[in-house]
Specification:
Helices cover 21% and strands 37% of the residues. By secondary structure, it is α+β, with helices and mostly antiparallel strands. It has a single domain (33-252), classed as Lipoprotein localisation LolA/LolB/LppX (outer membrane lipoprotein receptor (LolB), chain A, Clam). Strands 7-8-9-10-11-1-2-3-4-5-6-12 form a twelve-stranded mixed beta sheet.
Length: 269
């Protein structure tokens, strides 16, 4: 179809919208200057030190986990949840989505994973810190905690060693909170983080974009209802089997994965 015919059949407001979309698509970020790069790294360092200083913290979150089908259609799976952390060795998390309703408790010795919909639970001995738990869940069981990088005792050392490019993109607003918007690149992923400005530099949003999977899917977590210290609700981090749930092996626990059973993981490109 000729351009004149395309314009004649398209309402005027849509033409303006299409042109704006084209302009946005052609826009390119300014190259990173040394000062901006250093500032971006410094802001992550400040956030890391602030998080490490919090012996107790809690927050609610919303996640989007993108997948790309073999037909190259990008889909997003959404879930919400909460995390309560007591350093160095206790955590209580919940995650509720269309395919999962999972509660996880760790008291420094035992990890309990409770599938609420199926009324099944499993327990695994994992003595040690929350850092150790994060590593074991990711490396041994392939069941990472939501936003696990942000729960570690030294977030800076988790995020920054492989960074090859850093940009300070100025201010952004997440959930009504003004944040510093930072972007980083590694060989395998691009990631962005929005850090609350002020004396509580907590992460408001964290987005990871894969470079190794066709279609460059993203994982994002947005944090709200941030609390620390005395504002954090009390928790004993012990599983109370009030529903008479049946105990099973971890590998047999259904609905514990972010990816539902009717999807099959493909290979990286």
């Amino acid at each position: 179809m000729h351009m004149t015919a395309w314009k004649r059949n398209l309402p005027a407001p849509d033409i303006a919208g299409a042109m704006l979309a084209m302009m946005i698509g052609m826009a390119a970020p300014l190259p990173a200057h040394a000062e901006d790069s250093a500032n971006a790294r410094s802001l992550v360092k400040n956030m890391s030190e602030y998080l490490a200083a919090q012996t107790t913290l809690s927050f609610d979150y919303d996640t989007n986990f993108e997948i790309v089908t073999k037909e190259k259609q990008k889909l997003a799976l959404a879930s919400s949840g909460s995390v309560l952390l007591n350093r160095p060795d206790k955590v209580h998390s919940n995650r509720f989505g269309g395919f999962a309703n999972i509660e996880m408790l760790f008291d420094g010795k035992t990890l309990t994973v409770f599938g609420k919909n199926a009324n099944l639970y499993t327990q695994v001995e994992v003595p040690g810190t929350v850092d150790n738990l994060v590593d074991v869940l990711r490396d041994k069981y392939d069941r990472p905690l939501p936003g696990a990088d942000l729960l570690m005792a030294n977030v800076h050392d988790q995020l920054m060693p492989e960074v090859v490019d850093a940009k300070d993109l100025g201010s952004g607003v997440i959930g009504g909170v003004e944040c510093d918007h930072l972007a980083f690149r590694t060989k395998e992923v691009d990631w962005q983080i929005w850090i609350a400005q002020g004396n509580q530099p907590y992460p408001c949003r964290y987005v990871i974009t894969s470079k190794l999977v066709a279609g460059s899917p993203q994982y994002s977590i947005q944090i709200h209802n941030w609390k620390t210290g005395g504002d954090v609700p009390h928790d004993n981090f012990v599983f109370n089997n009030s529903t008479n749930a049946k105990q099973i092996d971890l590998k047999d626990l259904p609905e514990a994965d972010e990816l539902p059973s009717n999807f099959v993981k493909g290979k990286a490109k």
